[in-house]
Amino acid sequence: MDGRMSEAGTSGAVDGETAESAGGRDAEAVSRFVESFAAQLVEAGMQRMPARVFAALLSSDEGAMTSAGLGEQLRISPAAVSGAVRYLAQQHMVSREREPGSRRERYRVHSDQWYEALTNREAVLKRWEASLREGVTSLGAGTPAGRRMAETLAFFEFIDGELAALMQRWRTHRDRTFGP
Prior knowledge:
The protein is mostly helical. It is 68% helix and 6% strand. Strands 1-3-2 form a three-stranded antiparallel β-sheet.
């Protein structure tokens, strides 16, 4: 990890606790990191509010925060938190859990969230492949549009085939680097 990430990469601020008291981090630096990383996620196609919530969760020491903690840190409404978490949960990027002895939910980002998000795309790839096969048939394999569809289909079939091996290599690398 580079110095900037380890210095600003986690906040630990949960439900009124300041970033400084939670681990000696600079709250402004944490906020800048969260907004900067969220902006990069938005550029890659994620909606703005889920990107901000995901970046905040990722940067917290526990990897989990309550709705109130997220709202306070990001200065957003409970409805905005709820909508963002709903989207992130559908994408398998966060999960909901109950605090022991409480009715309040905490939202957690897991260390394997990238793996989960990518591997859960397999079902999407399979649906795209089926649609593209239908497109090749409908458009005619010999037409320019049909050839484009066939090439796109071949690309997604290739990606689908490579993804499983790539994810296994990642698990091996992660275990070597960070432990099982």
